[in-house]
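Hello,

I think I submitted the pyridoxal-5'-phosphate job twice by accident. Can you confirm which output corresponds to this input? Input:
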Amino acid sequence: MGQWLEPSRRSDVPPFMVMDVMAAAARIEAAGGHVIHMEVGQPAAGAPKTAIVAAHAALEAGRIDYTSALGIPSLRARIARHYRDAHGCDVSPERIVVTTGSSGGFILAFLSMFEPGDRVAVTVPGYPPYRHILTALGCEPVLIETTNDTRHALTGEALLAAHRKGPLKGVLVGSPANPTGTMMSREALAGLIAAAEDAGIRFISDEIYHGLDYAFPAVTAAALSEHAVVINSFSKYFCMTGWRVGWMVVPEILVRPIERLQQNLSISVPSLSQIAAEAAFDGAAEMEEIKHGYQENRRILIEGLPKAGLAKFLPADGAFYLYADVSDFTSDSFEFAKQMLEQAHVAATPGLDFDPIHGRSFIRFSYARSLDEMREAVDRIAHWLK
Ligand SMILES: Cc1ncc(COP(=O)(O)O)c(C=O)c1O
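Support: Only one job matched these inputs. Its output is below.
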């Protein structure tokens, strides 16, 4: 084969190990086994009925066309209203950008905010695509470890210490976070944003798990700074992963550059998904019931896992994740997850996906499925660890 067919170096991003767990689980299921899926970060429920009805009506009505690059105006206005209703904060619809999930939001944010070679801080443990997308775009992810002492919140001091070692152009944090499920308090978030802005470091807040907060209410960075870039999505709270629709709140100065990027990169977000997303806001009652289910699942795990033998985990503040320290049992969480799957038929994700430094000591449980499955999972793990 000619060398001209060689893939680019920037495309050489690591795969997701969870995919290997899913493939192993599928093999067990094909052989008749019943696996409890706690590896996938995806709600078991579907989109709210209001969204489905609106999508059906749109299909019946006829054409599904391109929309304006920044999104359907009524959806942008509805999202702006959400900030008033949920956070008591005024955000102009002009500052809302509809995106292809939050994943599309990261690409638009990084392209509009950073140059190739810029250093951008992300936390470990953390959601792997943050660093992989930055790398693919030619930026340099700078990994900052968070610890239990701060509920895994990045602090202003830690950020500035990294900035002194090598100047940072930006920082990205998520709260509630994946994989830890921990959250930043209002003070922690406000302190971090202030420290970043004083040092000229641009701030990005991944708020995809907003709405799924149990320990205390999640605070939006949009309420704390007009300069912060907020990224959110319909994937998690609204259970609309496959619809691929999300949004950003951006400072005014970034609106036009992002519009130009979106025009060129994707023209627009799928219009059917935008129509469904707007109607999803009317399905809040249905979504609150689902959230209540997660809350019950969380209770079962917090009470049950210690009795089963897994007593060390981070505060499960929000999202639908519990990050458990399995270092009493193994120095290789990948092997631990593999054996738990093969012998107990419970699938979870090894921490190495999220943390190249300490991930061998952790596994992530996702509790977005049914209460009965959570009870069964706790029983199986207890029996397996005996
Ligand atoms: C922290 C975090 N951010 C972003 C995403 C991407 O989600 P989407 O592109 O579906 O909005 C995920 C998905 O699991 C996530 O966990």
